[in-house]
Amino acid sequence: MTEENAVPQPTMPQLNRPAPAFDALTTHGNKKLSDYKGKWLILFSHPADFTPVCTTEFIAFAKKHEDFKARGAELIGLSIDSHYSHIAWTLNIKEKFGVEVKFPIIADLNMKVANAYGMIQPGASDTSAVRATFVIDPNGVLRAMVYYPLNAGRSIDEIFRLLVALQTADQHKVAMPENWSPGKDVIVPPPATIDAANVRPGEGYNTIDWYFSTKTIAA
What's the CATH architecture for 173-219? Predict the structure, then answer.
C-alpha cells in the first residue's frame, strides 16, 4: 500500500495520562471536560441514535444513573448524530420505554471528540463511533477504556463494577483480583525487595506465597 493510499489510523488516548479535552454541544447545553473536575466521568460512545442495541444500552445507563452519581461519577454519551436527533431519541425512549435519560449526550457531527478518543475504528466503520467507554478520574486522568464492536452491547453493570474497583484500589492502595466486587478480598501489592519478601508471611495477610497476598477491607 502506497503512502498516499494508506488508511488513516485513529488517534488513541493513553491510560494514566490526561484525557483529551473537549468542549461540545450536548442535550444539556455545552459541556467541557473541565466541568467535571473533582468528579469521576464515564464518557461513552454509541454508533447511532434510534438503533436497537444502542437503545438497550441507554436504557441500562439511565436506570443505573443514580448508582453512578452515588459513587461521585457522572455520565455523558456521544454519537455522530445531530443535536436534535439526540433530543428526539431521548424523548422516544421516555415515551416508548418509560425511561428518562437524564445525562447529556454530545452531538459530534464533525467527529472532533470521537477522533480525539479513538472512537472511530476504520476496520468497523468510518462514519460511526464504536461502543467505546472511558473512565476518567477527578483529576481528568484517563484510567480505563473499553471498546466493543458495533453488534454487541456492553454490560453497564461491568462498567459500574470497574468504577467501584478503581475507586477502591485508589483508596486502599491495593489491586483487584478477577471479577472483584465489594466484600471480596483484595490483593496486597507484592514486596519490592528480598528482605520485604522474607517478612511478608508474618505481616498478617492471607499469604499464599511471597508475591501473592490478599486481605479483607471494610465494605
Answer: 2-Layer Sandwich (3.30)
Residue with cell 466486587: 181
The verdict on whether 54 is a catalytic residue reads: yes
What is the rounded CA–CA span in Å between residue 26 and residue 49?
14
In angstroms, the first-to-last Cα distance of the chain is 55
CA dihedral 193, 195, 197, 200 (to 10 degrees): -130
Contact 146, 159 (CB under 8 A): yes
Q: Which is nearest to 133 in space by CA: 85, 70, 73?
A: 73
Query: What whole-number distance in Å separates Cα of residue 166 and Cα of residue 68?
Result: 13
Looking at domain 3-154, what is its CATH homologous superfamily? Glutaredoxin (3.40.30.10)
pTM (two decimals): 0.90
Written as nine digits, the cell of 14 is: 493513553
Helix H or strand E encompassing 106:
strand 105-107
The tally of CA atoms less than 13 A away on the side-chain side of residue 10 is: 23
The series of mean pLDDT values per 10 residues for the chain, 219 residues long, is 48 91 96 97 94 96 98 96 95 98 95 90 62 96 93 95 97 96 96 96 95 90
Catalytic residue among 54, 73, 75, 113: 54
Within the chain, which residue ranges are assigned CATH 3.40.30.10? Answer: 3-154
